[in-house]
Amino acid sequence: MAEREERRFAEVSRDSVKLMAESAGVEVGDEVAALLAEDVCYRLREAAQNSSQFMRHAKRRKLTVEDFNRALRWSNVEAVCGYGAQDALPFRPAKEGELFFVEDRDVNLVNLALATNIPNGCAETMVRVHVSYLDGKGNLEPQGTVPSAVQSLSEDLLKYYQQITRAILGEDPHLMKVRLIISTCRLAELLRFDTLLCFQVALLDLQTNSKIAALLPYFVYVISGVKSVSHDLEQLNRLLHMVKSLVQNPYLYLGSYVRSLVSSVMYCILEPLAASINPLNDHWTLRDYAALLLSHIFWTHGDLVSGLYHQILLSLQKVLSDPVRPLCSHYGAVVGLHALGWKAVERVLYPHLPAYWANLQAVLDDYSVSNAQVKADGHKVYGAILVAVERLLKMKALSLSKPAEGGVGGQQGTAGGVLGFRESSPGLSPPPEPLSEAGLGIASHLQAGGAGCPWEDWTPVPLPAMYCELYSFFGDSLAVRFSTGPELEGCLPALPCQPADARKETVANAAAGLDNSRKMPQLTANLNISPRPDGSPHTEPPPPSLAATIPGRPFARSSSSSSSVQRRSSSSRPGQRSAGPSRDVFPKARFPPPQAGPPSFSFLIGGRQMGRRCQGRRFQTSFGPQPPLASLPPRAYAHKLPVIGRVSKPVRRWTCSHYSLHLPL
Amino acid sequence: MAAVQDGQVESDAEKETKPDASNDVAGNSSGGARSMSPNAASSASGAAKAAAPTGPGEQQTLLAVLQFLKRSKLLESVDILRREAGLSDELDESQTNDGAAAGSASLLRRVSVGGAAATNIAATTTSKGAEDQPDVSIVLSAYSQQGDPALYQVYYSGLKNFIESVLDCHRAELSQLFYPLFVHMYLELVYNNHEHEAKVFFEKFSGDQECYYRDDLRVLSGLTKKEHMKGNETLLDFRTSKFVLRISRDSYQLLKRHLQERQNNQIWLIIQEHLYIDIFDGMPRSKSQIDSMSGSLAGEARREANKAKVYYGLLKEPEIEVPLDDEDDEAENEEGKPKKKKPKKDNLGSKNKKQDPNAPQQNRIPLPELKDSDKLDKIMSMKEATKKIRLGPDTLPSICFYTFLNAYQGLTSVDVTDDSSLIAGGFADSTVRVWSVTPKKLRKVKSAADLNLIDKEADDVLERIMDEKTASESKILYGHSGPVYGISFSPDRNYLLSSSEDGTVRLWSLQTFTCLVGYKGHNYPVWDTQFSPYGYYFVSGGHDRIARLWATDHYQPLRMFAGHLADITCTHFHPNSNYVATGSADRTVRLWDVLNGNCVRIFSGHKGPIHSLAFSPNGKYVASGATDGRVLLWDIGHGLMIGELKGHTDTVYALKFSRDGEILASGSMDGTVRLWDALKAFDVETDDFTAATGHIHLPDNSQELLLGTYMTKSTPVIHLHFTRRNLLLAAGGYNSQ
Q: Where in the sequence does UniProt note compositional bias of the Low complexity kind (chain B) (predicted)?
C-alpha cells in the first residue's frame, strides 16, 4: 500500500495497527499488521460508501456522524458514540510528528450555569410560506436565505428594550444606529406623548424592574455609545441617568459590566467633549454629575471588579499630569478625585499640586482678552481643587481627632482649642469660584516635600505640614472654610461634629493622630470662639428647587448647602438668586484675633461664576470661625494670587461690614 | 514493440487456448441464435438465464439443482421442483448415483468454460454450499480459470488498439465493451490473488472509462482482495447479472472476426460468460445515442425486457356523473345560474365514458369501492378542476414555497394531500409531523368513552365526534425508531404512510393521530413508500432491493418486485394503479405489473441513483430525476427514452406534472424549481424504426424546454405539488448551516 504514489483513500498504516494492537495488549507481526491495515482500510471505505446513501436519502449534502453510525449499524458493527454534535470537530495536528487528533475542549459547566444569557429553547418547527412567484414571474435573482429563525431575545424583552431606549434616547440618529445594530428591528412609530415623562418613567422602571437581566448587555452597549454623542449634552446626561438607574437597580448583577459603565462615565468626566467647545454649554455640570455617579458606582459596585479603584486613580492622575489636556479635562480629574473621597485627593491630587499649580497660575495670570475663556476655565479648576483640598484637610483632621475625642473633648472645649472641623455641607465645600483673596501667601511652599511623588509610594503627610503647604497655595480662602458656624452654635465647646459622610472615613494612623492632636489648637485656635450667629445663613435660604434636585444627599440646614459640588443643581437655578443680597460676595479671610471674644462670625460666600452667561452658577459659603492668623506665614506672594474681584477693598470693608460681607465682583 | 508483443501473445494464446476452440464456436453460435430469436421464456426464469437454453442441458441443470437441494435437506423444495419440472423420480434416481458429480460438473462446465478446472470448481461450489446466493459463488468461481495475469494488459490493450482502429461508425458501439471488460478482467485478477497485476491494470486503464462510471470505479479501486469481493454488494450486482450491450450486427461481426483472428480467448471468454450482447440489424448507433442509454449498473436494458404490453391508459372514472350533476345542479341552482355549465359537463362526462384503448380492464386489479365520502371528494375535485388554470408556456403557474423552519431534526420527506389541505413532514428524529395548511385545525376523534355519550342520530354527528380540545395547527406522530425517509397521504386523507430507517412502514390514522399498523417485511431501511391513487394498496421499496406491494388490511406484502441490482430509492404508482414504477441506485427505472409482479419495463440511461419519479396525468409517460441533476422522460408504451432535461446542478428530489400535464416542475437540492414544457418535450417523432429498435436520437433542446428557473431562499426543494387549480406548491427544509 505504502508504495502507491497517489493515495486515493485514507489509509491506515501498518504502524497504526500495531500501535492499536499494542494498546490492546496483543502482539502483532508485520505481515499480520499489513493485512489487517489493508482490511481496515477497505472496511472503512465500504462504511463510508454505505453511509453516503443515508446522507442522500436525508436530502443533505453533509455527511454526518449519524449517517456513518447508521451504516455501521446495518453492517453489524458497533456504532461510534460521542461524536454526534452538529458542529464540525476541529482536527489538529500535533506539533511533533505526523499525529492528528480531534480537539476536545473542556466545557466549563459553571460558566454555562451562571451565564446571564439564558438560552432560548429550540423554536418550534413550523411551516411558513417564504417565496412566492405569481404566474411564474418573479425575481430570478438568488433569494438569499431565510431570516434567522431564532431571535436571541424574546419578543417581550425586545419590545421593552425598544421602548426604553426610545424613551430615554429619543430619536437621536447616532445612538439609533447603535440601537439598530443590536436590535436589527425597525423602529416603530415614535412615541407621541411627552418625551420627558417617558424619560422619567423609563428611568424609574430601569431602577426597579427585576426582569431585565437579559437586556443588561444591550443597555451597557447603548451606554457605551456616549462617544458617538459627545456633542450633545442632553443625550450624555440622559445616558448618565441611565447608568444611574441601572446601578441602582437592586435586581441587576452588574458583574464585569461595571468596568464598561465606569469607562463610559469616565469618558464624560475626563474627555474634552465636543460639547465643551461652545462655552455656553454647561458641560461642567455634566462632569460633576458624572463624578458623583462614578463615586456612587465605585462605592456600591466597586467590589465587583478588582483593582478598579487603582485603575480609576491612575487614569485620573494621568489626565491631571498631562499639561496638554484642556482645563476642562483637568477639572474633571479633580472633581473625580474629590468624588472618590478625600483619600484619593490626598494620594493623587495633593502630591501633584505643586507641579500643577504652576500651570494653573500661568493661566490665571494671563489677563489678555483672548485668554478670557481659558482663564474662566482655570478658575473652575482652581475652585475644584480648593474644594477638594478643603475636604481633604477636614477629613484628615477629623480622622485624627476622632480617637481623641472622647477624653479630650471637654478639655479642648475649655481650653478653647477644640477642633471643630466640619463640613459646611454634604457637598463639602463651596464651589470653586473666584475667590478674591488678597492675602494669599505661599510662605512655606518649599516645604512641600511630598509634592509630585508617585502615589504608589505615597506616605501620609502629617496634617500640619499639609495644611501649611496648602495654605501656601490658597491662603485664607482655604482656611476660611474650615468650619461653618451653624452647627457649632449648639455645641460651643463641644465635640467636633461628625460629617455627613463620616462613614467613608477610616481612622488614620492613630499614632500620627495623637502626635498631631497637640498642634490642633494652634490651627484652629479661633474656631472655638466662633459661636454661631444665625445671621447670613438664614438670610439666604437655599431655594427649594435646589434641595429637591439634590436627592440622596443630606441637606444641611445651613445656607452653605447651596454651595454643593453638585453643580448640576446649581445650573438648575438660574437667575433665581440674581436678585439676592448675597450676590457677588467674596469671602474674607481677615479674622479678628482669637481673643476677640465670643462674637459669632458668619460669613457668607456667595458668588457668581465668571465668564458665563449672567445666569451662571452662583456660590455661596458661610463661615464663622477663622483660622488663626498668627500662624499664617506672611503673604509674600499675594500679588501672584488669582485675582478675583478687588483685592484690597474687601479687607477694608470687612471690618465694618458686620461680618457678613457681600463683595461685588 | 507492440508488434513484437502481439506476436508473442498470439503464440501464447494459441498454445493455451486451443482446447477451448470448439467451445468458443459453440458459445458463439448459441449467442447468435439467442439474439436473433429472443426467447422470452429463457429470460423469465433466473436459473435458466445462466444456462444455454438447450433441452438436455436444461435438464441437467435442473438435476444439478435437485442434487444441491437434496444435499441441503430441502426436501419439500425438491418435491416442488420435481413436480414443476416434470422430472420423474426414476430419472432422478437413475442419475443420482452416477450422475451426481457429472451433473454438477457439466453444469459448471457450461457456467465456467474452463473445463480443465471443472472438478476443482465443483469441489469449491459444493463445499461452499452457496449459502445465500448459489448463483454468485458459481459465477465468482468462474474467475478461477488460470490465465497469465501478466498478459491481461496485453489482451486489453490489443482490443483497445483494434477498436480504435475500426471505422468510426463501429468504434462507438464497440467502445461499450471497454467498461465491462475492464471490470471483469480486473476482478479476475483480484480473484486470483494477482494483487499487484490488478493494481497496475487498474491504473493503466481506468482513465479510459467513461466519466459516468466514475463512482463504480471508485468502489472498484478500493477492492484489492479476494475476500473483499464476497461482501461487496456492488460487485455481486455486477456478477449476478450479465452486462447488457446493444451492438449492431455489423459491429459484432467485426469484433468476432478480430477476436478469432487473434485467438484472444481471454476476452472472448469474458464476453461469453459475463456479457450479454444484444445484436440488432441496422445502422450502428452513434456515440450520443449510446451515451444517452448507458450508465446503468448492468448496462442497457435488453430489448425484449421492454416488449411486454403495458396498459398505460387511465381507468374509466366510476359512475360519478350522476351525483356530480345532481350536486352541481343543486349548487348552481343555489347560485342561480344553472345553464351555462351543463353542456360543458356533458362533454366532460362523455369523454370520460369512452374507454381508453390502452387502458387496462376496469377490474384488472380489484380496487376498493368508493365510499360516499370519496364520492363527495371526487365531486369537490371535479368542481375545483373546472376552475383550474390552463397552463402553458405562456401561462406559467404561480409558485408558493413552504419552508420548514427550525427543522433541527432534519427534514427528510414531505407530502401534501391531493386537495392541498394538509402537509406532512418526515424528520430524521423519527417523528412525523402533520400541519394543516388551511385555517381548519387538526382535531382528534374523541375517546371511546366520550363517543358513547354522543347522540348518534344527530345530523352533525361527524362534527360531534371530534374533540375540540385537541384542535391545533399541527400534530406530531411518534412511533418510528429511525429517520422517516418516505411519507404518503392516502387519497381520502384518512391515513398517512411513513417508511423509516427502522425497516418498517407505518400506517397512521389522521382521525385519531395514532399508529394503526406497522408493516414489517423489509429488514433494511425503507427508502420510500406511496399510496395507490385509489387507496388501499401501497408500495414500498428500500435497501433490500425489493419493492413490495401491500394492502392496508394485510400485514404481509401481496407482491414482491425483485430485480433491481441496488437499493430501491423511490417508488411511484401509475395513475391507473395497475403498475408501479421504482427508481433505484442501480440507475434504472423499472415498471412492474401489479397483477403478476412482472417487470415490464427497464429504463436505463441515468448516470446516478434515481431519487424522484412522476407519471404524467394521462399515464403515458414517466419522468425520473437522479443525482446527476438530469431529468429523463420515458414513453411507457414504447419503452423509449424520449427526452432529457438538463439544467439542475444537483440531485433532483422532486418532480411533478401539472394537473393537465402541460408543465413538468422539477425541484432540486440546488435550491431551484424549474418548469419545463412537457407537451413540447413529449412531441417527439417516433417512427416505426425507432420504436422497434429503441434507438432514439434525442435532440439537445433542454434550453428551449426550460420555461423558468425559480430560486428558493437557499432551501433544497424536496417536494412539489400542483393543487387542483394548478397552483404549484413546493416544500423544503431550511438549513442554516
A: 33-52
